[in-house]
Design a protein that fits this description.
Radius of gyration: 17 Å
Helix content: 55-70%
Number of domains: 1
Largest sheet: none
Number of strands: 0
């Protein structure tokens, strides 16, 4: 029982697992799917670092978070512009 779950998908949420490295975020089929995969790869790289004591890592992490906010703002602006039309 449960053999259908025997592959690596069960570990997809575990950082450092083989499945987590191949994780694709569930997004609608648009050009954003490539962006989501790239963002997941960047996030996976940022799972391993010392935010408190490594200034270079902290800067990369902050840059990544700022990009997420910018993408979110762009997506909201596009959706709101579509509603106004």
């Amino acid at each position: 029982m449960g053999e259908q779950f025997a592959d690596d998908r069960r570990d997809a949420g575990v950082p450092g697992s083989a499945a987590a490295e191949n994780l694709e975020l569930p997004v609608r089929r648009t050009d954003r799917s490539r962006t989501a995969r790239a963002g997941a790869a960047a996030a996976a790289e940022l799972l391993h670092g010392d935010y408190a004591d490594d200034a270079a890592f902290r800067a990369r992490f902050q840059h990544w978070v700022n990009q997420l906010w910018a993408q979110k703002d762009q997506t909201l602006s596009e959706k709101l512009a579509g509603r106004a039309a």
